[in-house]
């Protein structure tokens, strides 16, 4: 029996050409594995057939949308995950899930190798291979674009020579990766950081329009997970899809940034992630009301580290799992409702309430009925500033 390699298959140019390229270079039969993580507008049956038409001996499609939303997006939301305070890890979150199924499929079919279509300049090569190393250390990894010199020009020539059923051409203006959490756009004219995005580049969001009537929604949370919109219960995948529609219609979630890649270079990236940006905003405001001050301060620090670890491909690493435990513990009281106004490209919190709130109106008010004893403040300030006062005296005495 011929040895097999399982290829993470997207249906695009590089992975379509990689099927034959891998077969020629390794002599192994190629199994194409496509994972549905909510790629809007993609016919997964068509993707499956395309892999077979390109020479795969077997083509497998797995619908992982529910799992992706529940097991990857909700933990990211609880961690308010934003790499460099902007990027909600649109692509990075899907890679460990795809890797999980790469390893599982390879073992089921007796393959000794996994493959992916990443270049040697990007982050995803690290994410796939680090995750597969953690889950299937016995498996080898091949990246045809990186390891077998499959450049884009060669890929187009190979596809044309072999009459492969692909849709990309040399005129394709940019590269797109998408799933239900958002859409990433890069390359082409966008590589000049001064070039503004052109009309038609966005798909998940409409252009912000101040003349539109604002959309107001009430988001219900239970232990950090969004569970309802305007009182109607939703599953995690339903929450993300509906918020994509509501926030996207108001232009919420467009991101234009220069990003620090894991491999050490800077890259100009365009993202649109309406549900991610709107839900993170709501979740952070509910945490402000329900978490103790020191817990909240530490969580904000660890959120940045969590985002870095996931961006760097260490979803299955020990530190990330330890931070997960901390984050999950903080969410036990993050239950309540947040009112969001979606308008002109922004998601703005206009109200929040929780039975677990630490906000005490009678302590916070400046009106009659104030129960805060202001006479305690003077002594508190004396004690609080004592270390600074002592240090200042020392400094003055040394002058």
TrEMBL record:
<dbReference type="InterPro" id="IPR048268">
    <property type="entry name" value="Arginosuc_syn_C"/>
</dbReference>
<dbReference type="InterPro" id="IPR018223">
    <property type="entry name" value="Arginosuc_synth_CS"/>
</dbReference>
<dbReference type="InterPro" id="IPR024074">
    <property type="entry name" value="AS_cat/multimer_dom_body"/>
</dbReference>
<feature type="binding site">
    <location>
        <position position="123"/>
    </location>
    <ligand>
        <name>L-aspartate</name>
    </ligand>
</feature>
<keyword id="KW-0067">ATP-binding</keyword>
<feature type="domain" description="Arginosuccinate synthase C-terminal">
    <location>
        <begin position="174"/>
        <end position="390"/>
    </location>
</feature>
<feature type="binding site">
    <location>
        <position position="123"/>
    </location>
    <ligand>
        <name>L-citrulline</name>
    </ligand>
</feature>
<dbReference type="Pfam" id="PF20979">
    <property type="entry name" value="Arginosuc_syn_C"/>
</dbReference>
<dbReference type="Pfam" id="PF00764">
    <property type="entry name" value="Arginosuc_synth"/>
</dbReference>
<dbReference type="InterPro" id="IPR001518">
    <property type="entry name" value="Arginosuc_synth"/>
</dbReference>
<dbReference type="GO" id="GO:0016740">
    <property type="term" value="F:transferase activity"/>
</dbReference>
<keyword id="KW-0028">Amino-acid biosynthesis</keyword>
<dbReference type="GO" id="GO:0004055">
    <property type="term" value="F:argininosuccinate synthase activity"/>
</dbReference>
<keyword id="KW-0055">Arginine biosynthesis</keyword>
<comment type="subunit">
    <text>Homotetramer.</text>
</comment>
<feature type="domain" description="Arginosuccinate synthase-like N-terminal">
    <location>
        <begin position="4"/>
        <end position="165"/>
    </location>
</feature>
<feature type="binding site">
    <location>
        <position position="271"/>
    </location>
    <ligand>
        <name>L-citrulline</name>
    </ligand>
</feature>
<feature type="binding site">
    <location>
        <position position="117"/>
    </location>
    <ligand>
        <name>ATP</name>
    </ligand>
</feature>
<feature type="binding site">
    <location>
        <begin position="8"/>
        <end position="16"/>
    </location>
    <ligand>
        <name>ATP</name>
    </ligand>
</feature>
<dbReference type="InterPro" id="IPR048267">
    <property type="entry name" value="Arginosuc_syn_N"/>
</dbReference>
<feature type="binding site">
    <location>
        <position position="259"/>
    </location>
    <ligand>
        <name>L-citrulline</name>
    </ligand>
</feature>
<feature type="binding site">
    <location>
        <position position="175"/>
    </location>
    <ligand>
        <name>L-citrulline</name>
    </ligand>
</feature>
<comment type="similarity">
    <text>Belongs to the argininosuccinate synthase family. Type 1 subfamily.</text>
</comment>
<keyword id="KW-0808">Transferase</keyword>
<protein>
    <recommendedName>
        <fullName>Argininosuccinate synthase</fullName>
        <ecNumber>6.3.4.5</ecNumber>
    </recommendedName>
</protein>
<keyword id="KW-0436">Ligase</keyword>
<feature type="binding site">
    <location>
        <position position="87"/>
    </location>
    <ligand>
        <name>L-citrulline</name>
    </ligand>
</feature>
<feature type="binding site">
    <location>
        <position position="124"/>
    </location>
    <ligand>
        <name>L-aspartate</name>
    </ligand>
</feature>
<keyword id="KW-0547">Nucleotide-binding</keyword>
<feature type="binding site">
    <location>
        <position position="127"/>
    </location>
    <ligand>
        <name>L-citrulline</name>
    </ligand>
</feature>
<keyword id="KW-0963">Cytoplasm</keyword>
<comment type="pathway">
    <text>Amino-acid biosynthesis; L-arginine biosynthesis; L-arginine from L-ornithine and carbamoyl phosphate: step 2/3.</text>
</comment>
<dbReference type="InterPro" id="IPR014729">
    <property type="entry name" value="Rossmann-like_a/b/a_fold"/>
</dbReference>
<feature type="binding site">
    <location>
        <position position="119"/>
    </location>
    <ligand>
        <name>L-aspartate</name>
    </ligand>
</feature>
<dbReference type="InterPro" id="IPR023434">
    <property type="entry name" value="Arginosuc_synth_type_1_subfam"/>
</dbReference>
